[in-house]
Amino acid sequence: VQLQASGGGLVQAGGSLRISCVVSGSDFSQNNWAWYRQTPGTRRDMVALITSRGVAHYADSVKGRFTISRDVAKNTVYLQMNSLKPEDTAVYYCAGGRPSTSTIRTVGGYTTWGQGTLVTVSS
Hints:
About 0% of the residues lie in helices and about 50% in strands. It is built from no helices and 11 strands.
């Protein structure tokens, strides 16, 4: 299974960006997919996830601003980020797996990770 993330870049505060994650070698529709982010010296935190049934969940810090979606025909997961803030600056990682209810928001709940894409929000 391979996850290829792309779409990161530099954007001004208040702007928008969409990042993508193309999945290969996996039964895409049967897995949960998630976006995590990490800054140097900090832990990797869940930003958004979408279950195999298409139900989305978000971290409180991005609710109302970010939208996760998936295109089953293209084996691709997206994260639309609006109203970006400097504190959204991070490397964003896509992840896939079949976590349990107790691990769905944890790093350990996902078995496959992409290489990360850097999002920088300037003030």
